[in-house]
Amino acid sequence: xxSRSLDLLKEHFQRDILQNQDPWAEPTKAEHLLxxxxxxxxxxxxxxxxxxxxxRSSASKWADIDALAKAGVSKTLDVxxxxxxxQDIVLEYTYPRLDVEVSKKQIHxxxxxxxxxxxxxxxxxxxxxxxLETFDPLAVPTxxxxxxxxxxxxxxxxxxDDREATQxxxxxxxxxxxxxxxxxxxxxxxxxxxxxPVKRERDEKDVMEx
Length: 210
Known about the structure:
Elements: H1 2-21, H2 27-35, H3 40-51, H4 58-71, H5 79-94, H6 100-104, H7 143-157, H8 163-167, H9 178-209
């Protein structure tokens, strides 16, 4: 399990963690990395190197670990233990995590689309995979904001000529929630479309077996 996970995570660790997130760029963050290493002499040598190059990237710092280890800066270094420590770091920073409380308690419904967080009032919205990098979880609609948007829309359209057409507009269409609902409906439509041939094949197989 661990070996397979590490193979899958290797590319994501290099690209998503080291390059995109650059988690150890700041000295305080780099200290956390050093605390995860099993050899004090190696950690001290790395700290000295990084202090002399403040702008060093996380990718470079990660490469420094092997470079200084091979250079023999520590006489007590256990290579196997270092490898295991590095693997643990990859798993810690990259492997998907589950919140135990959210997973087991029924009051936590944040995994369901359009439920409302009881503390913040924010609506749980579906996320487009193509815009993950720009998605801001703090900018999603709140219940209060949605109610205000509905009131504002109704007020601005109450004097309109086409009263019948106005009345047919659903409340969500008057708000900033509309793009998320439209995206979710399109996603469900694609799933149903993809399921049709599979369902037809399954039904035909059941008839033949009968």
